[in-house]
Amino acid sequence: MKGKYNYSGMKHIVFIFLTCFLFFSTAMHAQIDSVIVEKYYISDANDATDTTAEDAAGNGKLATGSTTYRIYIDICDSCKLKKIFGDTRHALKFSSDSIFFNHGAEGKSFGNDIVRNRLADNPAVALDTWLTLDHATKDRSGVLKSEDPNTTSILGGAASGGFLNNNDAAAGIPLTTADGLVVGSSIGLSGGGDLFFNTTTNQDSTIFGKLVPDSQFISHDAFLQHNGVGLKGPTAANRVLVAQLTTRGQIKFELNLIVEETNGSTVTTYTIVAKDDTLGEILSPYLTYPPACGCTDKKYLEYDPLFSCLISDSCLTLKVFGCTDPLACNYDPAANSALSGYCCYPGQCQDRDLSLACPSISNGRLSLYPNPANAQISLDISAGDNSETKYAVYDVFGRLVFEKNMGIVSGTVSENIDLSGFDNGLYMIHLFIGDASVLKTFFKN
């Protein structure tokens, strides 16, 4: 009997609800799948005796109990990481409540400048604090220890003089088993911004250099970029190492990225930021650490796009979409989330049929409750005098799911619709009373 009803008269309203429903129920494609912070190593008292970590002035001593963290950007399979940066609107931030460790003799500002064959003579340089794109040494890419395919390590072990041998369970796989280094070709990176290198000494005075021990780096003028078309991670997981930080404190950071995605012959560049996406950048909650947690379900009022992890029971108030303007003829007092362009006023109804959008000005009237509904929904229908009355229920895709011809009806009648066979979601009831019609929506949960 679906052909009995005029679906074309609903198309504008169906489109509004369909668009909104899809936006809040379908995960959007993302260039960043996650940001992974790995505990790479925890230094013990034996590591602290490595005097090669100190320069002539005694700077660069490795403190017992220091934790080395590695930060990986997990990007989409068709993506490449081009750049990390801070600019006038987006700060690049790294901080700790304790100073960062930098190797006094062999440390570098950028991981791809570390000389791997020097690790045997200077073990603590493997724990140096630096930025990078992919490489942890000149010829080795950095991977999670759990993804390291090697069964042996170039770090630790009997030949290391006892350094880097701590197997503290808090750091996961010991470096003597997997060092998170895999063969990689040399790459071209360039770093800049006036906060990386002192213009007089040409030495790095930030937390990534040994010149000035510090616990904080905040820059609106700094970047590290690949000189080519961007980098993919060394494994199929496509996780790109961007930083190594060693400190006795708890770390925090905010990152901003340039990512290139290839779709066939089309390459699209995305700017993805931790905060302040007012100029069209993509805002990603993953780029802030520690992560902010709360309601991550867009169907609830408590949702916040800055939350990257869910707190149980934080999603409390389901969104009810509709017109929230009391001056509109289709105002819905139960609605708590406005639909753009949905409110109707005499003479202004977005090219829609005003009698459909506003039951209050049609020849019939329909009220329904409760909304949202669960097991059943009740309809009160004011049909007037001896009017042929029928109604149909559509899902958000405009598909007929239930209909009933009530025949000739006078006055006000009540109807109950059993919802036990309905999927959860948004529905529309189209009521026909003689030549007039009324449209209302409800949510089944």
Overall geometry comes to elongated
Strand order, main sheet: write it out.
9-11-3-14-15-16
Distance between the termini: 27 Å
Low-confidence stretches: 1-29
Could you walk me through the main structural features you see in this protein, from its secondary elements to its overall organization?
By secondary structure, the protein is mainly β. It has two domains: 2-24 and 320-444, Immunoglobulin-like (Sandwich), CATH 2.60.40.2550; 32-283, no CATH class. The protein has two helices and 28 strands. The protein has helices at residues 11-25, 354-357, and strands at 32-42, 67-75, 79-86, 92-96, 130-131, 135-137, 140-142, 181-183, 189-192, 216-219, 222-226, 239-247, 251-254, 257-263, 266-273, 282-283, 288-289, 293-294, 309-310, 321-322, 337-338, 365-369, 376-382, 387-395, 400-409, 412-418, 425-433, 436-444. The strands form eight sheets. The chain has a six-stranded mixed beta sheet with strand order 9-11-3-14-15-16, with no helix packed on it. The protein starts with 10 loop residues before the first helix and ends with a strand.
Short structural summary:
With 445 residues, this protein is mainly β. The protein contains two helices and 28 strands.
Top keywords for this entry?
mainly beta, 34% strand, Immunoglobulin-like, 445 residues, 2 helices, single chain, six-stranded mixed sheet, four-stranded antiparallel sheet
Task: Please describe the topology of this protein.
Blueprint: H1 11-25, E1 32-42, E2 67-75, E3 79-86, E4 92-96, E5 130-131, E6 135-137, E7 140-142, E8 181-183, E9 189-192, E10 216-219, E11 222-226, E12 239-247, E13 251-254, E14 257-263, E15 266-273, E16 282-283, E17 288-289, E18 293-294, E19 309-310, E20 321-322, E21 337-338, H2 354-357, E22 365-369, E23 376-382, E24 387-395, E25 400-409, E26 412-418, E27 425-433, E28 436-444
Parallel strand pairs: 15-16, 18-19, 20-21
Antiparallel strand pairs: 1-2, 2-12, 3-11, 3-14, 4-10, 4-13, 5-12, 6-7, 7-8, 9-11, 13-17, 14-15, 22-23, 23-26, 24-25, 24-27, 27-28
